[in-house]
């Protein structure tokens, strides 16, 4: 199928050509027609499937066709809510790219930076607003944002918003939009709290499910190294000697772990930076930019900070620590192998992480191939006594996600 078969207007087709997109991805093929015909949509899809374009393209076309903007101040007619600043920026950039030949204005707002420039952008009038829930709610309360003209509401990564404790903010925001609106909800997993919310806010939605979270993208080569916890740093350095690893995201579970690892890598002359919630927005953006333009080889990230980072042609994902939630493994390795490209996902597993590994292999329905030939084979043969173990989060099997109450509310 070609984009030309989706009844898109020439200005959008021209922009897609400019992006070198030839064929719509499966979610784009299935979601664009019903959205264009005005239907609500429930999309079960994760980052990497092309879901941003699946909602951004028809949103631009609907806003342009239904009611082309009049001169003067514009009111927000499409609102996208997404959990993280990085995702918000990426969605905004996608709207700008696909809408570059249309007279529509898009703006992005998120927390952690000064409010003033965002206020100024809003005062000038915007047609499409991309926002994280915390900052959006703040600005609504300050009466700087009015959602009474919203025709299209898009909730992106709804399951992550739940995980991050945003669900009440999101519900408050939805209540400020007109009930006569078109609503699109995207989520990688469907915990019951999200299914209930979808039921209450979507009207006869078309349901589109792409790559269930349990089926790992086939293009990704997965490898597993058993190693003692104390040797992980050295094994990582050993693996990074392989020059075919041009760029890699390395996942750690904690912010401190990420910082410690960056210090170790830097000492060994490997260019690395960390991105996590304690870093300023500026520092995160610079790290991401340097990683994208290949001046930085390794980006060490925690799951929340890395969620949704859109980096083209990422060759390697390294799980320095296995996640306690098996779905997170699939999200992590989905950073590579995007839009049909091949990638490699390497996991380092210590003895005490074996239960996490069992959960992951159960979820993906296969054993991850083990690489035995390496200089730091595992020597530990029994679990570390409880009192000597670092505090590890409990294992969490996806379905129970909604019961996990975040201790800290992350403001968007
Ligand atoms: P997303 O799932 O929205 O994060 O998109 C994943 C990546 O796929 C992004 O880098 C997009 O720019 C890219 N992409 C989206 N749609 C297409 C397409 N039809 N052809 C090629 N690349 C695409």
UniProtKB/TrEMBL annotation:
Enzyme Commission designation: 3.6.4.13
Catalytic activity line of the entry: ATP + H2O = ADP + phosphate + H(+)
Disordered: annotated span: 374-412
Motif (Q motif): 1-29
Keyword terms, alphabetized: ATP-binding, Cytoplasm, Helicase, Hydrolase, Nucleotide-binding
Domain Helicase C-terminal: 231-379
DEAD-box RNA helicase Q domain residues: 1-29
InterPro entries: DEAD/DEAH_box_helicase_dom, DEAD/DEAH_RhlB, DEAD_box_RNA_helicase, Helicase_ATP-bd, Helicase_C-like, P-loop_NTPase, RNA-helicase_DEAD-box_CS, RNA_helicase_DEAD_Q_motif
Pfam families, per the entry: DEAD, Helicase_C
Any one GO CC term of the record: cytosol
Domain Helicase ATP-binding intervals: 32-208
One GO MF term: hydrolase activity
Family: Belongs to the DEAD box helicase family.
Name of this chain's protein: ATP-dependent RNA helicase CshA
Species, as recorded: Paenibacillus mellifer
């Amino acid at each position: 199928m070609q984009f030309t078969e989706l009844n898109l207007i020439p200005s959008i087709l021209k922009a897609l050509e400019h992006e070198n997109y030839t064929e719509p991805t499966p979610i784009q093929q299935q979601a664009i027609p019903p959205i264009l015909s005005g239907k609500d949509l429930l999309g079960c899809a994760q980052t990497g499937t092309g879901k941003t374009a699946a909602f951004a393209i028809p949103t631009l076309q609907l806003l342009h066709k239904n009611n082309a903007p009049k001169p003067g101040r514009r009111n927000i007619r499409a609102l996208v809510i997404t959990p993280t600043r990085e995702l918000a920026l990426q969605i905004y950039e996608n709207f700008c790219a696909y809408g570059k030949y249309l007279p529509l204005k898009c703006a992005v707002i998120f927390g952690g930076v000064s409010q003033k420039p965002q206020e100024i952008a809003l005062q000038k009038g915007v047609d499409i607003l991309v926002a994280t829930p915390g900052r959006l709610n703040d600005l609504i309360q300050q009466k700087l944002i009015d959602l009474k003209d919203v025709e299209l509401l898009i909730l992106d990564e709804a399951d992550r918003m739940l995980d991050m404790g945003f669900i009440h903010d999101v519900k408050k925001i939805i209540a400020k939009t007109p009930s006569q609106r078109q609503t699109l909800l995207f989520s990688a997993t469907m915990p019951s709290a999200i299914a209930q919310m979808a039921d209450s806010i979507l009207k006869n939605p078309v349901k589109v499910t792409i790559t269930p979270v349990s089926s790992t993208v086939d293009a990704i080569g997965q490898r597993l190294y058993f190693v003692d916890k104390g040797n992980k740093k050295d094994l990582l350095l050993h693996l990074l000697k392989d020059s075919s690893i041009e760029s890699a995201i390395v996942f750690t579970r904690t912010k401190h772990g990420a910082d410690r690892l960056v210090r170790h890598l830097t000492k060994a002359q490997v260019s690395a930076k960390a991105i996590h919630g304690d870093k300023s927005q500026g520092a995160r953006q610079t790290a991401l930019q340097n990683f994208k333009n290949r001046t930085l080889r390794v980006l060490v990230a925690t799951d929340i900070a890395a969620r949704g980072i859109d980096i083209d042609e990422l060759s390697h994902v390294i799980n320095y620590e296995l996640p306690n939630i098996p779905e997170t493994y699939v999200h992590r390795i989905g950073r590579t192998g995007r839009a049909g490209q091949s990638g490699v996902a390497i996991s380092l597993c210590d003895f005490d992480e074996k239960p996490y590994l069992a959960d992951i292999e159960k979820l993906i329905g296969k054993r991850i191939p083990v690489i035995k030939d390496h200089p730091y084979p595992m020597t530990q043969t029994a679990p570390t006594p409880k009192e000597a173990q670092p505090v590890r989060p409990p294992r969490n099997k996806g379905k129970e996600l909604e019961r996990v109450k975040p201790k800290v509310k992350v403001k968007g």
